[in-house]
Amino acid sequence: MKAIKVWFVAGLVAASSTGCEKILQEQPQSQIVPSYFNSQAGVLGGIAGVYNDIRSQWGTEGFTVEMQAGTDEFIQGASAGTPVPYTYNGLNGSNFGSAWGIVFQDINTLNGVLQYGQTIDLPEATRKQYLAQAKFLRGFWYFYAVQTWGDLPLHTQFITVPSQAASRQPAAQIYEQIIKDLTEAAADLPNTPTAPFLGKAATKPVAQLLLAKAYLTRGWLNNTASDFTQAASICSDIIANKSTYGLDLWQDYGDAFNPTNDYGKETMFVSDHVLDPKYGYYTVGGAAGGGAAQNLSPWFTNWNYPNNSGINSFKNTSGTLVNNGTSGMIRDSYYGRPYVRMRPNSYKWTSGDNAGKSYFLDQAFTNRTVDSRFANSFYTVYISNVSITNAANTANNQRGIGYSTVVGQDTAVWLPDYEVTGAPQFVGTRPFKGIVVPPSLWNNGIFPALKKFMDPSRGANFNDPSTRPCVLYRFADVYMTGAEAYFKAGNTTQAAALINVVRQRAAYRKTNTSAQNAAAVTAMTIQPSDVTLDFILDERSREFFGEWQRWHDLVRTRSLVRRVKAWNPEAAPYVQDFNMLRPIPQYQIDRVVDGPKFPQNPGY
């Protein structure tokens, strides 16, 4: 993808089934006309523009919230903003749908590429590869959209004349088009990234994975056994040919999120973000404002450690943590920006079937001493990055001693995943220089932060957006998608075998001896009888927590309402079956004034 960024064309056609933007209704001035796509530059420009628009969603705030809020995994952070996406209470077309206009703008652009790019003067193999990129991207956007909104406008021809009429076609027709596009794309895409589509752009295995996901999702929708079998077969084929595709799992789960491995063997498909002001997304050193194409995902799940790490914090008579004293941390690039938008769902239920349990620790990340994914996914230890002197007689210093913290050595905040006697200022009877915050003291302002996407490369400009790519698909997803498909096809033996590959990788720790790793593998290995839908969903939490997948996971498996009611205290009172589709944006409905009214999804 990096190689084609130079071809980005602003102002791609917006005249599509969205009913078109008002600027086009009043004064059509599209920069793209059919003849534009009759050249290599035009075709590449159209494709690059669509890749750019993926960047304008993945990694941005509104889109990230839409993909993860209102699930079993996340509840609101202290700075969540509007609670509506988290609770479903009042959710409607005026406060949802950041990607709708982008989706149909891009689909129209891709239709132009496919319709007029057939005759560009290029070698046949090269032209096929370009058109395969366009087919993949059209399938990609339609798949995202049909999962999100259900029935959709279906267009495969390039629209040049603005229209104020639009209609929705059944999801079944959308899936037919998705499967056709992805099947044809997989046939013509190269096995590995090939110029000019370098980095981690679409390749044959990426198209195959998305095709498997489409079959799996359609299978759930219609309870179609053949779709499950097809999805399982595709995933098995990708795994069997992983060396051909240059794909594999890292031995250590944590290495999948090491910035040096962002374009490595486990990464399949990304949305690029680059440190280059010529693209106009931000000024180096000018900080980030959350606008289009800025990757701020490292920080949405980060708590306000510079403000809420008071060195003399204490537990009041109600058992609540009270932040007090000088903060033991200052903002830096390693621990990231404290956006505090959402937090892991560590709410402990006091009644019902899950009394005494939280989703985060007691359902998802249960075997934390063996399974490395909790430790590799969350910050639980914050090392002092500023020296603080705390006199023995300072208010609320209960330790009975005075001391100074040593930068780079002392722990400022420890968030253990179990209860610690004496917290927050003691470990047992031993005074602790920083503060200890066990699960009973976590709240919407202090909690383990997701560290998978952190970007310490910001350096002195740590308020700038991240330049790490957003990884949309990892090779681990091939195993988990295949396992789910085999489960639905009735083959729990093969489902368990695929899940075990992922789980046994998670058992590995660099700090273990060979014997310890072998014992951990045994402890992590499951049997076919262990494979249930809820086990698969829990395993997807462990593997993909925070990776823009959870809402679609729960919708695909028809589990959204059940799982949210079971685990999410904020959304449980409000979530309903109709929430398995998102509301159509109101601007789309308002702009369709010719012919039948554009229908809203039921319940909104």
The CATH architecture assignment of the domain at 31-189 and 558-603 turns out to be: Alpha Horseshoe
Radius of gyration: 25 Å
- CATH fold-level topology of the domain at 31-189 and 558-603: Serine Threonine Protein Phosphatase 5, Tetratricopeptide repeat
Question: Percent of residues in helical segments?
Answer: 25-40%
Gap from first CA to last CA:
38 Å
What average pLDDT do the residues reach? 92
Percent in strands: 5-15%
**Which residues form runs of ≥5 with pLDDT under 50?**
1-30
Helix-and-strand structural type = mainly alpha
Largest beta sheet: strand ordering: 7-10-13
Tertiary shape: globular
What is the CATH class designation of the domain at 31-189 and 558-603? Mainly Alpha
User: How many alpha or pi helices?
Assistant: 19
InterPro entries: SusD-like_N (IPR033985), SusD_RagB_dom (IPR012944), TPR-like_helical_dom_sf (IPR011990)
Family: Belongs to the SusD family.
Domain SusD-like N-terminal: 24-216
Keywords: Cell outer membrane, Membrane, Signal
